[in-house]
Design brief:
The chain is α+β, with helices and mostly antiparallel strands. The protein has three domains: 137 residues, no CATH class; 202 residues, Roll (HIV Type 1 Reverse Transcriptase, Chain A, domain 1); 205 residues, Ribonuclease H-like superfamily/Ribonuclease H (Nucleotidyltransferase, domain 5). Helix content is 42%, strand content 16%. The chain contains 23 helices and 20 strands. A five-stranded mixed sheet has the order 1-6-5-2-3. It has a five-stranded mixed sheet with strand order 18-17-16-19-20. Helix 2 packs across helix 13 and helix 13 packs across helix 14.
Length: 700
Amino acid sequence: MHDPVAPSIGSVVEGMLATVVHILPGIDLYSNRLAVETFVSAAYEYADLDYNIDKAVTWGDNFRFPVEAHLRDSLELAAMGYDLTELARSRQLALLTSRLNHSRIADRDPHDPDTLLLHDLVGGIRIPLDADFEEDRVPPKHDKTYKIAHSAVDKMWFELYEAGFVMLIPTADMARIPATVKLNYSQPGWARKRGKAKGRCICDYSRNNKNGTPLNTVWVKQLVKEFYGEIEPCRIEVLVGMTLAQIDRVGLVNFTLWKMDLLGAFNLMFLRPEDAGLLAMELSEGLTVVSLVGNFGSCVTPFGFNVGSRVIIKDFKQKAMGDAEICCDDLMGACALWERAYDMALARTCIEEVFGENSVADSKPEVGTRLDFIGWHLDLDLQVMGIARHNLLKTFYGFCLAREQAYLSVRELQRLASRAGRCSMICRYMKPFSHYIYSASAGYKQQETRVPISDDLRMVIDLWLLFLLVMELEPTKFNRPLASFREVAPQGMLNQDANLSGIGLIISRPSHQGAGVRQPRGILDPGDKSILAASGYQLPYDLRGDSSYQNAVEFISIVVGLCLTVSLGLGCGGMLVQGDSTTGLTWAADEKFRAGRSSAAVLFFMQLQQRYEISVTMTEHIPGVINPSDPLSRGVSPEQLGYDASVWYDMRLNPTLVAIIASFNPSVVLSLRDDLPVRWAQNEAWIDILLSVGGGWDRR
């Protein structure tokens, strides 16, 4: 059952129909009302899969541990003199032949650091402790969720017990474990899991024990990072880059994607037997669970497991016909149709040579030209990258809930901002508005602090609902073209400078004589034949010498430079931007902005890029003392600086540019509620003029 505070489907639909008229008048949602209602309904139905705790209680069905669970491990522990380490070691040895072991990796390069780490991991993942850590050998009280859902949590732990991955020992017997053996208690818990009525077990190792020391700390994470190596995330750019490289190699008509998952993920690696007692938790009926394998609650486990992931993908790449990338326990491959069977068999071999038989999830392999991977959706038929539909629906529903609230907690705002940030990598229109949500939660220290929803934030929420919808309905327009991920040589260069009273711009064609895509251009002198335009413009803003506006005007100068580039008729593509402001260059290249003084320029910047596919693909920082645009920004004319008359451009004679620059005034607050619909439509009209007649002037 979806959240009772969620608005009705009808009210959501009507709200989007009202918003689209102002923001995207070219999109006819009224004629597509059925498709709109279908998408909104799907989001609500997906929310219904997010089962509440009462469903877990039903699934638990009053589960109680059988007598065996109270006796088997207890009797063996007593026979070993209550040495928990020895019991854990004996249990692991019984499973070792079918898992990561020394004989399985004996033929690997002994000089490879990851081979040494794998041999170390045969003995289990190490759990370092903070220098001031003190054990808490007494179980803490259960939290509210466990008390309610204990039957489901206990039943899930018992399933792991039957698989041999955990031990169950009466807490009374745990008290007899010698002080020389590590032992620390944490709280068990329960959390929702999409599509699973039972939910999932959680382990709170970040909670301070009664001595004020948790297992998960920043220092512990740094230690394991240094020991096992950094986890390199599988970035969207790498994923698409791999895909495009394989398409270029074999041709789109011959191309396919495939996906394969490891079975059980962290269950595939042991914990050190001497460390196992550190992760003890007391369940119902006076039983303590001690895990023998890695789990999702410890900050250590992902780093240890990542060694195996690194080895698997390295082995695969050495022998594959195509290519693949890995993210934790998920592999995605790209190759020719006739190579797929070989590459998928190779991937299975690479996995099993590390983790043993039965370490591949046979029910999950997927193939095709449309595939979800780690939350993204690759569509080779439409040639776009989108958001996996379950994430799109989840994000849409989250904004539906937020729309009805007068307050949101800092935690809720950060969750929305995180989801929005991911989506804005696909629909670039929304870049400014994901950062706006982040800004709304900035400055608060407590995650549960309730933040009032301003009128502007409510407008941002409505915008997100609209754009998430059109990403579904108009995927070729509002998802990201795969071609936009290609690294290409800049099609033009913009040298710029700004101060509080003026901007200077020099636009030129790039020289490709022996230059690589990422090579800097250097400084152009006024006589350089590649220069297309040199211009200065005195800003109409009254900034009263306030230097806090400097970053804003630097960014404004870049946006105006792109407008001038478009008006010159330069083709779509990337731009190399030179300047002496690191902040302005970073904002333009990374598309990460601060809400506030630059909001008007940022909004135009993103609308222009979405319409014209012009982007800042490379930046070059140069010292201000040698920046050739510096004198132009201070009122010195191109003629005085020796530029050829054919490249003098007086922006005062371009009424469209004059109006655009005036609209960027950083001292005027842009009200999203009052100004955004009109400003959005006006920006679109100005862009139309720039694209058609260059701004309404004679370009020469």
